[in-house]
Amino acid sequence: MRFLSLPAALAAMTATTAAIQVDMTSPDSIRSVSKTIAGKMLEWYTGNQPGGTPGILPQPYYWWEGGEMLGALIDYWYYTGDTQYNDLVIQALVFQYSPTYDFMPANQTKNEGNDDQMFWGFDVMSAAEYAFPNPPADQPSWISVAQAVFNSQYYRWDTELCGGGLRWQIFQWNQGYNYKNSPANGGLLNLAARLYAYTGNQSYADSVTRSWNWMSDIGLISPTYQVFDGSDGLLNCTQLDHVQWTYSAGMLLNAASVMWSVTNSTVWYDRAQGLWNASSVFFKDKVMLEVACEPQGNCNLDQQSFKAPFSRFLAASMKFAPWLYPQIQPLLYTSAQAAAAQCNGGSDKITCGTKWTDNGVWDGTSGVGQQMSALEVIQANLIQNATAPVAHDTGGISQGNASLGTGDGDVGSNPVVLAPVTTGDRAGAGILTAVVLLGLLGGAWWIVS
Ligand SMILES: *[C@@H]1O[C@H](CO)[C@@H](O)[C@H](O)[C@H]1NC(C)=O
Ligand SMILES: *[C@@H]1O[C@H](CO)[C@@H](O)[C@H](O)[C@H]1NC(C)=O
Ligand SMILES: *[C@@H]1O[C@H](CO)[C@@H](O)[C@H](O)[C@H]1NC(C)=O
Ligand SMILES: *[C@@H]1O[C@H](CO)[C@@H](O)[C@H](O)[C@H]1NC(C)=O
Ligand SMILES: *[C@@H]1O[C@H](CO)[C@@H](O)[C@H](O)[C@H]1NC(C)=O
Ligand SMILES: *[C@@H]1O[C@H](CO)[C@@H](O)[C@H](O)[C@H]1NC(C)=O
Ligand SMILES: *[C@@H]1O[C@H](CO)[C@@H](O)[C@H](O)[C@H]1NC(C)=O
What we know:
about 45% helix
């Protein structure tokens, strides 16, 4: 073999590994860049390979992030029409359905939080809304599994502390059992709103009202629509952790836009508009950022991925409430440009980092969350021409079952059989926000009243 001179070798490398270039005015370019970034994201996933467990990302990723990633792939198909990952998604979702069909698989339940479960619930809800290909005929439909997730969480509503609300954790042995937070409560609210739009069943709208009123009463949703992370139930939710995460605001904005689309009410119009107004904190010079951790450069593994669901929820909100389009779209455009510009890391030059605000400079981090966030914000720019979400009576291909999941063995009924809990499990539970973990372990310094 011949050895190239160094400059020649470098030239050859650049020729084969061109950094990502996106032309945001060209749908073809957006599709092609999305495909490259999705392909890179799936380098981390081995669940569809021999010996792998479908739906599971390798350690150190937690179970929930596998669900989050599958959601990004459902969106990928929805936006681009590329079907190459559909079988992978269907296999993984059905594998993790669990015997109660509500994403409470025995391998995960001992440290599963409500928000962890809900990220899988969002997947089946999106699958129903986008008329994603159905699961095998001998398996419950996407929408019925979304209903089962709803049912399991609806009955976890807890009036012992704070006059209501969901606890963050499902089981009392987990860190954060007494914490009542926005990801868990906003998750249930989001799913209920979308189930209401899909099925027309008033019970889901009533659940939305219950959740919204409680979150507002406690202050998790402020009068000016900031969404704060959570509150300590042992203080009866009289004090708040004021940290704001993108995805919590996003799930509420999506829910409010869905409720507006069904009700056409000024109440939901104002809520959607207010939540969007308050989301300005998540942009710097028109580029999206995870403001609670990016400026300090200390986003943990979970937090590195939150801009993915935020982008997804923003795009979906424009679809349900088209008057938001001229407000949100310009920021998704500039954020996508900035995200793509820094996806030039690693030896492959298609590795994305966490921060998009550094003018095209890769921040040196990489992972599923970074790849997923860039993917979601870039492909979201195809939303304008994407098909409108369907409902049961308007093109839906998923048949509901309102009673699926009610025989679930979680809190309140027959306890699920669980493996003994180890210290590692306690520390490893679900979606952790660093601030909360520190707070729970090191006293209540994080609570700012
Ligand atoms: C939407 O479709 C129209 C007509 O096919 C096309 O001209 C336009 O570029 C598309 N826009 C996006 C953002 O995909
Ligand atoms: C549970 O874990 C075992 C052992 O790793 C694995 O064989 C099995 O497929 C897992 N089940 C699910 C639903 O993840
Ligand atoms: C706890 O908070 C709830 C809701 O704000 C309130 O209704 C209840 O009276 C409070 N309980 C105590 C013991 O203060
Ligand atoms: C509506 O939803 C509620 C709550 O899940 C359920 O009990 C009821 O059977 C549903 N109604 C119909 C008509 O499906
Ligand atoms: C929605 O409400 C607005 C004003 O409140 C009204 O002008 C409009 O006709 C309503 N649209 C529908 C579809 O009901
Ligand atoms: C949102 O911001 C706009 C522009 O500042 C303002 O006019 C509007 O009243 C705000 N809406 C809500 C509900 O906060
Ligand atoms: C709906 O779910 C319930 C509870 O799991 C089950 O008994 C029933 O057979 C299901 N109905 C249909 C039509 O699948």
